[in-house]
Amino acid sequence: MLLYERFLGRPFAGHRDSVSELIGDNLESVIEDVLSKAGVSYRKTRRAERIPGFDQAPDFIIPSEFNPKAIIEAKITEDDGTARDKVTRIQHLGELSLAGQPSDQPKYEVIACIAGRGFGVRREDMRKMLIATRGKVFTLKNINRLVDHSGIHAFRTK
């Protein structure tokens, strides 16, 4: 793929960038399905949307942006650069959740839902993500445990 990108140049990268959001929507659809089946109220944000209290809106806010108790960042990536960027984003959200709070009482729980080989390339980045989320990292294999094994279970109605 890398050689093909080099051969075609920016047009190939432009195409890849344009379909990456569609690929990411697949993971977000799975998350929506898991939350809906559990009867969890959530707010899914749109791209480049502004949410008070966040410099960049997370993908999901539970139960709402007015009372965030859990936030979910979702990402499918096949390269380590994109994965590294998402890890940095998740670390920042973890810092925001602790701003002005005791270290054992964050404002909200930060949860990562990830897929793709990009996250498996750099073990140090995975370690950082696990620390920032306090172990709340889910993949497509275990995403069915998202509600039961996070603070989201408090919002389950089904």
Structure description:
α3 (about 80-100) links the parallel β3 (about 70-75) and β4 (about 110-115). The chain has a five-stranded mixed β-sheet. The protein is an alpha/beta fold. The protein is about 45% helix and about 15% strand. The chain contains five helices and five strands; from the N terminus they run ααβββαβααβ. α1 (about 1-10) crosses α2 and α3 (about 80-100) runs parallel beside α5 (about 125-130).
Key features?
single chain; 158 residues; alpha/beta; 5-stranded mixed beta sheet; globular
Largest sheet: 5 strands, mixed
Instruction: Determine the fraction of residues in helical runs and give it as a percent range.
Output: 40-55%
**Cα-atom Rg, whole angstroms?**
16 Å
Please report the distance between the alpha carbons of the first and last residues: 44 Å
Number of helices: 5
> Which strands sit side by side, in order, in the main sheet?
1-2-3-4-5
Q: What is the oligomeric state here?
A: single chain
Number of strands: 5
In terms of DSSP E residues, the strand content is 5-15%
Alpha-beta content class: alpha/beta
Secondary-structure element string? HHEEEHEHHE
Which residues form runs of ≥5 with pLDDT under 50?
19-24
